[in-house]
Amino acid sequence: MRMLRIGLAQINATVGDLGRNGERIIECAEKASAMDVDILALPELAITGYPPEDLLLKKGFVDANLEALHVVASRIKGPVTIAGFVDRSPSGIYNAAAVIHKGKVRGVYRKELLPNYGVFDEKRYFIPGERPVIFRLGEVVFGIGICEDIWCRNGPISAMASSGAGLIFNINASPYHAGKISMREEVARSRIKEHRVWLAYTNLVGGQDELVFDGQSFVMDKKGSVVARAEAFKEDLLTVDIPARSLVKRTAAAAAAARIVTVSAKPARGGEKEKKRQAGAPATRLGPVEEIYEALKLGLHDYVVKNGFKGTVIGLSGGIDSALVAALAADALGKENVVCVFMPSRYTSAESREDAEGLAKELGTRIIEVPIDTVFAAYHDTMKGLFAGLKEDITEENIQARIRGNILMALSNKFGWLVLTTGNKSEMSVGYATLYGDMAGGFAVIKDVPKTLVYKLCGFRNSLGHVIPDRILTKEPTAELKPDQLDRDTLPPYDILDRVLRHYVEEDRDLAGIEHPHMTKKEIARVLRMVDLSEYKRRQSPPGIKITPRSFGRDRRMPITNKYKGSQ
Of the residues 28, 44, 112, 294, which is catalytic? Predict the structure, then answer.
């Protein structure tokens, strides 16, 4: 039986690096050719990187992307290659896929369904394609969808299948959040159930500002079973052999539903020759906590490396948040690219010093000590006339945090290190963070990680090799900005707080829809009010990695000036 060999190449594209992205496509096509692949699919907007955002408003950028596609097409002599790019007509620009064969673009499909929710803003830039297209390669007929196209029941995928396509390639730049791979597979399975087609889903991989793309490309057979899956959070080239006759469909609706483009009248590469079948199995799915850890690592690595920083610097407090950020940085970038700074004050405990030093020793990172008491005293003397007769309060606490922020930023300026902030989602939600203090920096690694998840991630990291001192995992959280201070003096316990925050921030419930057995409605209302009042702080925070279904910033955009109270 003749087999059709398909390849899915998940590449780590960089937005705007058109030349390098093109080279990666060519390299993948050459590798696929050596593996006797018939059809190779690369991700959505593989030429430009995703999302290009307002670069798409620059005519020169769109022109350069078209030139890059021409160069790529001219150099691919091997398999039929599907690659995402930006197409243009007199009406506007399109999110599109080119079908390349023997040095030329043989056909183009333009994305029809443009997402405009959550992190997506495609209607700002693109216009939708007008009609599905199917492609013929010998007796094999295949369709191409682009990301959102597969999510709609009666969308372009349905038209392609009803027109005779027995194989659908869906090329994607689908951002990661916890549990996303299961959602993708269920959607794909729904389309297969409706149309009895094979489906090849290829996804981008890599970090781009707040977003992480996890790869995890997969192929499903006509029963909806995953027959192969690519690696998570790594570049990969997945190949699958499909019996060619299982792709042949008979239909009378072809002329009405989709336009047909013949790529080649000849059969796929190798003619009728039977290929040596390749054995393959789905890559092992990561556990839920490991998956998030890998997402954070990749997002951090690519932000630092793609933006050309020399290294990173972290304020190490002896607490759990900075411990997690330091561990992630060492794992993602190498210990030699991480500098930890311990900045004790009169309120810093001996235990915090021991834990910070112990962590740095286990990670193998450099640690610098910069005491802040002398600087704090200078601030106190400078302000004592202005503050005469007033009690010390959060003002003095914030000054300490801002001194630390200034020290870290000075080191960043002098040595070219990127400051990694250490605030988690729970703190960012309720404003338990200081502007120009612990919020000062260039990248907020755990900005979308709730406090309870911080503990799980630290436990997972220690399961790989014990680096985080046990006391950091068991002691009560404290900012150590005044005597005997504990987070629970101001906030509910984090296991309770995180549940309320999930309902309000990620699920959009109002006060009436949020219940907790250990909180009164008045206490819940106070938490929700803290979230609302802290929007101005979050607008000034560094970008951070999205790992939940709804993160602050791109996903959730609330007005700062807002008099609406409603039911919260």
Answer: 44
111 is catalytic: yes
- In percent, the amount of the chain with pLDDT more than 70 equals 95
Burial (0-12, 13-18, 19+ Cβ within 10 Å), 85? buried
Cβ–Cβ under 8 Å, residues 341 and 368: yes
- Cβ–Cβ < 8 Å for 502, 460: no
Sign of CA dihedral 262, 266, 270, 272: positive
Q: Coil, helix or strand for 530?
A: helix
Give the residue-averaged pLDDT of 84-93. 96
Say which CATH class 288-480 falls into.
alpha beta
Instruction: Summarize pLDDT for 146-172 with one digit per residue, the tens.
Output: 998 898 888 889 888 888 899 999 999
Encode pLDDT of 393-417 as tens digits. Answer: 989 899 999 999 999 999 999 999 9
- Is 60 exceeded by the pLDDT of residue 293? yes
Query: CATH 3.40.50.620: which residues of the chain?
Result: 288-480
Adjacency order of strands within the sheet including 338-342 = 366-369, 338-342, 311-315, 417-421, 443-444
pLDDT band (50, 70, 90) for residue 105: very high
CATH fold group of domain 3-264: Nitrilase/N-carbamoyl-D-aminoacid amidohydrolase (3.60.110)
Closest CA to 69 of 37, 35, 108, 30: 108
340 annotated active-site:
no
Verify whether residue 475 is a known catalytic residue.
no
Please list the helix, strand and coil fractions of the chain in percent, rounded to the nearest 5, in that order: 40, 20, 40
d(CA 427, CA 451): 8
CA distance 302 to 448: 17
Catalytic residue selected from 28, 112, 122, 147 = 147
- The token pair that represents 315 in the structure block: 């304020």
Number of H helices, E strands in the chain: 16, 20
